[in-house]
Write a structure and sequence with these properties.
CATH architecture of the largest domain: Sandwich
CATH topology of the largest domain: Jelly Rolls
Distance between the termini: 82 Å
CATH class of the largest domain: Mainly Beta
Strand content: 35-45%
Shape: elongated
Largest sheet: 5 strands, antiparallel
């Protein structure tokens, strides 16, 4: 009887090895067929495209970049408008306001920690030459100040996210302006 018990562990060991190899093969298949297409747009089997998974890995289009409006009130230091803007990894966007000449706009923005290249600038209304005036151009994770518009037109920020992760910017403003939003 003792001899039969020693044979069982050998069979159990074989079954265990077969189970481990099978699980590893299944995990590799899931990685190649599902995770690769959905996360990285790598689809060697074509199954990800057939199932619509490759759409998940596509960069967010300019018009689909997230801008979330936030409530305002006394608890938020009386800012007139607060928005949260998500700039996808390795991407850029502009957020603008329309101000009349000599109109004022106070602002404060901060990223969720990441440094962003930005150009705070304005373009005169009706100008077809491509002229714009930069007020501040640098790399930082926050800025604040008061703009007195030198001319009527659009004024705002160009942000560039060179990192490999999305960055969220919280922009607070108050003054005499009309929000243009993402450009």
């Amino acid at each position: 009887m003792l001899m039969n018990e020693t044979n069982i562990p050998v069979q159990s060991l074989q079954a265990l090895i077969i189970s481990i190899v099978s699980a590893a093969c299944l995990a590799f298949f899931v990685l190649i067929a599902f995770v690769g297409p959905a996360e990285y747009a790598i689809d060697p089997t074509g199954l990800g495209k057939a199932l619509g998974l490759t759409v998940l890995a596509k960069p967010v289009a300019q018009s689909e970049k997230a801008v979330l409006a936030c409530p305002t009130g006394n608890a938020l230091l009386d800012w007139q408008d607060i928005v949260m803007i998500t700039i996808p990894a390795a991407s850029e966007l502009e957020y603008k306001f329309y101000l009349d000449q000599q109109a004022e706009m106070a602002y404060a923005w901060a990223s969720d920690g990441a440094q962003l290249y930005f150009d705070f600038h304005g373009e005169p209304a009706g100008n077809k030459t491509g002229y714009f005036k930069s007020y501040q151009e640098t790399t930082a994770n926050k800025a604040e100040g008061l703009l007195v518009a030198p001319f009527t037109g659009t004024h705002g920020w160009y942000w560039q996210n060179a990192s490999s992760k999305p960055v969220t910017v919280t922009l607070k403003t108050k003054g005499q302006y009309r929000i243009k939003g993402l450009i």
